[in-house]
Fold each of these.
Amino acid sequence: MAEETIFSKIIRKEIPADVVYQDDLVTAFRDINPRAPSHVLIIPNKLIPTTNDVEPEDELVMGRLFTVAKKIAQDEGIAEDGYRLIVNCNPHGGQEVYHIHMHLVGGRPLGPMLLS
Ligand code: DGP
């Protein structure tokens, strides 16, 4: 059994977060340490620790991350200019919280993707 993270508490509204969207499958809230004017994390309500743990039965929820990212980008007014979606995996990917999350980052030119 995977261990819950602070994100499970955010989903259940047990700790405060700036939640911008929630439905039966996913929750989206503003990153506590924003790297750009818009920085939202979109997560499955179900605990999936990393992309290595995604199973075929998760395809619906993983697809929902993208349709919600599209909606939030529109709501934030950054869809036209563009933005970046990032999913980090494990230590080499820079993952800090082991509840899979998609970063939606935008609101300024982000430059080329960093590999360092
Ligand atoms: P990653 O490195 O991909 O695992 O990113 C984790 C992100 O989660 C990081 O940008 C900061 C954010 N974060 C961590 N703890 C909290 C929290 O308690 N609340 C919110 N809103 N964001 C958090």
Amino acid sequence: MLKDKIEDLKKEKDVVILAHNYQIPEVQDVADFVGDSLGLARQAAKTPHKIILFCGVHFMAETAAIISPEKKVLIPDIAAGCSLSDSITLEQLKQWKKEHPSAITIGYVNTTAEIKSELDYCCTSSNAVNVVKAIPDDKEILFLPDMFLGSYVAKMTGRKNMLIWAGECHVHAGITPENVKEKLNSLAHAEFLIHPECSCTTPMMYDVANGSYNSNQVQILSTEGMMNHVKNSKSNEFVVATETGILYRMKQQNPTKKFIPASENAECEYMKMITLDKVYNSLLNETTVITVPKEIADKARLAIERMLEIS
Ligand code: 13P
Ligand code: SF4
């Protein structure tokens, strides 16, 4: 079986497999760690293994290569990109910084290595609020590239001097307030979990800040924050507003609870490019190796290390 062959190669070549929560079930099953962007970056930083096989999208594998430069980092499909990380170019960022020369630049981990090399701080959905809180109040902030995460962070921190780039992830932006209303109206007792990249976040912000929507309890969380929440919550039913791949792990770890996607269409085609066949080929041939030029990696590492220090 392919799964057994993968296990054998993993041992033989001293490989750790890291997989994001949105990966297909078969890929999650062969991974040593499944988690969110922050958790996987932490695993990449401390792994004792020689090779990291990253089952996720390109910027995640790049982040692993930057923080563990002595390791070989592989991605099973080099075409696994991210619409959010494509929403700002290096030229655009340089121009933005030029217009605000004394601002602190905070970028989401969903950015290319080149963009990260121009940042003061990197953040993920699980620590964005705390990263912004760590910046002195009088400092202007440039936040990029996700506008929904940015608006959420500005609301939670009360920050007024924060400029937000107008980028978005097509998957999360596609989960609309209408999708959510429709589900919640018919499920009075379900808790509602939203990823802050969702477009439904902003219009619902007032209700969310009050801790509820209709009669439903609402939580805005990163993917791993969602995993922890469903495990500890007394509720038995959850409407989940993020990429649907996470439902597999939720159901597996909480077999008596019920999980309903806010939108069945919320599938990231980039995440789904990683198949078990490609994982096997990647291990066998040690392809595709992710490399980041040293001068870019050295600068980007500073922003990533600051992110890892703040949880
Ligand atoms: P997190 O795993 O950090 O919540 O991010 C979600 C995401 O969209 C990654 O592409
Ligand atoms: Fe990028 Fe969106 Fe896919 Fe996440 S879900 S990898 S942010 S395109």
